[in-house]
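User: Hey, my collaborator sent me this sequence without any context and asked if I could get a structure. I don't really work with proteins. Can you help?
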Amino acid sequence: MKKIKTPHSFHIPVMGLSFTIDSPVKVAQYGISSVISIVDDFLVERMREHYCNKFNFKFEPISTRSIDYRAERITAYLNLIDKIVREKFNELKNSLFTKGSELEKYFDMLPSYSELKQKFNDLVENNFSINELQAWIKENLSVGSIDVNIMTKLDKDNYKKKEKLPAEFKDAHAALRGFAKSNLTSSIILSAGINPRLYSYIANFDDFYPDETGNIKKKIVVKVSDYRSALIQGKFFAKKGLWVSEYRIESGLNCGGHAFATDGFLMGPILEEFKNNRTELIKQTHEILQASLLKQNRFVPKKPLDVKFTAQGGVGTSEEHEFLLEHYNLDSIGWGTPFLLVPDATTVDKHTRELLVKAKEKDLYLSNISPLGVPFSSLRTNTKDAAKHKLIKQGKPGSSCPKKYLISDTKFSDLPICTASKKYQKMELDELKLENLSNDEYKKRYTKIVDKTCLCLGLASSALIANNLKPESKEAGVSVCPGPNLAYFSDTFSLREMIDHIYGRANIMFRKDRPNMFVKELNLYIDYLNNKISEVKKPFSNKDMDYFIKFANNLEEGINYYKSLFSNIKSKFQDIKLNILNELDNLEMEIKNINYELIPIDKNYQSKTYKKAINL
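Assistant: No problem. I've predicted the 3D structure and written it out in structure-token form, which is a compact way to encode the shape of the chain:
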């Protein structure tokens, strides 16, 4: 097993706005890293008040009258979480030889191959003195990282008395500043694509630069779905004198939350490309970094700084976990969706957690409910959608849009508005009535318009309900964003039970029909392609044909990769290898049928990809 520097070989990624809003308070003292969303400063402020009351700290509210209230709220909350975690961690380290103590729990949950665990056991067995053990513990134990997440495109302009504020007061800029000014020594995870202005703004804060020992207090992590994106972003930051300390590779579809699908490029081949090119990626970015830091008269590291490569998206068994670490030489694996069922790790209200426990494959789907227009993993029985459908039946579709984090559409106004808002949907529906559509087409377009959900409220409300705090709006309901992997976990679990499952000490998944994570993602991509094809009128334009065929060809290349991979694996998946290979054969036939049924509008259409497809 791969030796790791951090205590654990897994991390808990960001989930929604509220589900990991306080996860560090629950898990960081055990060396487990997790990620807080800092999109919603109103939720952050409510949670800060909650925890100040819980731990008897003085709470001084930060009013919206302060011009920089968003950044100030985020800084104050992160500092509070850091303080609570440090106190808990210190208590843990001082609980030596107390039976059933937090320290005992810390070591019990570590993987068996942990050098830290092995060293501690050796010290205990060799009867080291209490003072020597305490000194070793204080020197060697580490707390889990309190990381934060920003969706880079959620960066709307803000106004004061109708006057537009400077760029640094844009949503993502202010959130980043809130993190930068905090006491944390941790990472910011940047997701949802490149925002050049935001990326450049990071260069204003010294904490993101390496000190003379090569340490970086606040690290940059980019969430990517392919190698090219990693290289582009790594170089962009290096030109600013900034180092990307982690490339977090995420499945395009086999994950929770917003799904940023590739054009049929699958996770296995993508991880292989990272594995084969990571040395070159580090070399190129290091050289650019050196030149930039030299120009800025800053410390210039002679050797490349530390960099991690991690992956997440659909992992569900210890065998998959170990395989990803070993075969692709990864540093950590993200376990997201399963932790929604762990009250010791995430914050989910009781009713929503019960819905998640009962959820089957049919209940988990890639929806169109996000106002951003990006596919969104959702649970069909979520209470926010139930409230939405009730309003639709009453002839009152849309949300009041109190928070405006997801405003993006300028079709009807100079300033962007949210497609889930009452205002936007009324204008869209008024326009729709004038188009003289058939009943079927009208219903289809109507449903697409009113399907949008206020995720700002829906993804934040669970933490308020779970902590018995007053709702932010009369628009009740919880949106939840699990990945497809949830269907194979059917109970709630303790933190210890989930970690034992991750490390293969126990099995909490009782269904035997769960597909391998790579096969599941492939199935999701085939469904995604079929849906794309069904949305386009036939016969297809040359542009549509090129897209569909290239997509299918990428999937087929992925299948060929997997066939070779699983045929040659010697130490993993032996009991399911034959089933995996049979499933790959069946899915390959599905893709060939898709290619065969594609009919171009241009009878003379003869692209190379089309010729290849029809001759498969």
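In plain terms: The first strand starts at residue 10 and ends at 11. You can pass these tokens on to your collaborator as they are.
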